[in-house]
Design brief:
Layout lengths: L13 H17 L13 H12 L21 E4 L3 E7 L4 H5 L6 E4 L2 H12 L10 E3 L1 H12 L3 E8 L2 H12 L7 E6 L5 E8 L2 E7 L8 H10 L12 E6 L7 H11 L4 E6 L3 H6 L1 H10 L2 E5 H11 L4 H10 L6 E5 L5 E5 L12 E5 L13 H14 L4 H15 L9
Parallel strand pairs: 1-5, 1-9, 2-7, 3-8, 5-6, 9-10, 10-11, 11-12
Antiparallel strand pairs: 2-4, 7-8, 12-13, 13-14
Helix pairs in contact: 5-13, 13-14
Length: 418
């Protein structure tokens, strides 16, 4: 059959389309070379593109002809992280903090009982207006912002089999996250994770219990691969980012290793977020494993400094030189420093070149006049940076776009855009 046939626009009606899909197209497909991916996976993006060109219709019309949501085009960013229901409480004084021996300007985990008591007391204050829960979890924040920016993500996480998991799914749908954008493992007899953000004047503290999230399993991931034919994987020759938050590492080291061993190859890149100093300290060996395999490393100044101390380097320059020189592939390190700006350290030249010279570049960030909540600014920054990079923008432009998006998120409660 001549290749020119692909460019012919046929007059189509529903009946003709359905008959063609059932009879002629399968036979036609068998005669064509498929894209080089896993031999047992028939790429739906290829089929959709082919069918659209043959029939001269929009991709949206394909859904009415029997394609399931599981056969959707693989997402450009696949993220693994904790699922949390967040609540924000503005404190008029520090009595509650003192009573439970908590500190501001910190991120830590609490046992379920203590967290429940703190949250109940904090949000019961008549003066507190932020009582409704909102979606939280670092990587989940990132994929939600990616979705808003126009990059389709896929998120993997775990929830309990409880009323809070229902709230999570309701909030995901309200946020525009369709079923094709996430897979949640349901864990019996374990509550859905929760987080309380305590704000006092210009300082805040985040206390969480990840609960069911800690039980996300490698078996669940393998099950999705087998039952849904690894629909979330792109051809290794196409750009795709696998994003792992540092908070996801504890208790799920096997999952993290499985993702790196089985998915990171070709143009599938690993992005890791250091997440918090205590994560770097307590999970250093695993964070080091991720950092050595990562293409992108996100973190704030304190997190990178903690990583430097654990590494044993005398300065950030020494750490960057050692880390980048030990890798056979390029790396992009993005260090946020609050109002001081952003430092970009990299030996990346372009998509297909080997590592180049190591460069250090500092960027200013937008000034935010009225800060409401900085909780998810780092997550939003990572989302915007990756979104811009996938659009093939220069790294400097990626940083500037990320700063602009993070500044907008700082004016909202939770990790949300206006």
């Amino acid at each position: 059959m001549p290749i020119a046939f692909l460019n012919v626009k046929l007059e189509s009606n529903t009946k003709f389309s359905q008959n063609f899909m059932k009879s002629s197209l399968p036979r036609f497909i068998k005669k064509l070379p498929l894209p080089s991916s896993s031999p047992h996976i028939l790429r739906m993006d290829y089929l959709q593109s082919l069918y659209a060109r043959i029939m001269g219709i929009n991709f949206q019309e394909i859904g009415s002809l029997g394609f399931s949501s599981n056969d959707s085009i693989p997402r450009k960013v696949v993220a693994f992280g904790n699922v949390l229901l967040d609540q924000t409480a503005h404190l008029t004084d520090t009595q509650l903090l003192e009573r439970y021996k908590l500190s501001l300007n910190t991120r830590a985990e609490l046992d379920v009982e203590t967290l429940t008591k703190v949250a109940t007391e904090a949000i019961s204050d008549d003066n507190n207006q932020q009582q409704d829960p909102h979606l939280g979890g670092s990587a989940l924040n990132t994929v939600r912002i990616l979705k808003r920016l126009g990059t389709e993500p896929m998120f993997f996480g775990a929830v309990g089999d409880d009323k809070h998991s229902v709230i999570v799914e309701d909030l995901l749908k309200k946020d525009g996250m369709d079923n094709i954008n996430y897979r949640l493992q349901r864990v019996a007899d374990t509550p859905t994770g929760r987080c309380i953000c305590l704000v006092h004047k210009d300082s805040l503290a985040l206390y969480a219990n990840i609960a069911a999230s800690s039980k996300f399993s490698e078996n669940f991931l393998r099950k999705i691969e087998q039952e849904e034919k690894a629909f979330f994987l792109r051809n290794a020759g196409n750009k795709q980012i696998f994003y792992i938050e540092g908070f996801f590492v504890p208790h799920r080291e096997e999952v993290v290793s499985y993702v790196v061993r089985n998915y990171i190859r070709g143009r599938r890149r690993l992005a890791v977020n250091l997440s918090a100093p205590y994560i770097v300290q307590t999970q250093y060996e695993h964070m080091l494993y991720l950092a050595k395999n990562a293409f992108f490393i996100f973190g704030n100044k304190d997190e990178f400094e903690t990583f430097r101390e654990c590494w044993g380097a005398h300065s950030m320059d020494d750490l960057a030189q050692d880390l980048l020189k030990q890798s056979q592939t390029p790396k992009i390190l993005i260090m946020t420093k609050g109002a001081e700006g952003v430092t970009l350290i990299t030996n990346y030249q372009d998509e297909f070149s080997p590592p180049g010279e190591i460069t250090f570049e500092n960027f200013k960030v937008p000034r935010v006049e009225k800060i409401v909540d900085t909780t998810g600014c780092g997550d939003a920054f990572a989302a915007a940076f990756l979104h811009a990079w996938l659009e093939k923008r220069p790294l400097g432009e990626c940083v500037r776009m990320a700063g602009d998006v993070a500044a907008k998120v700082a004016t909202q409660v939770g990790c949300n855009l206006p």
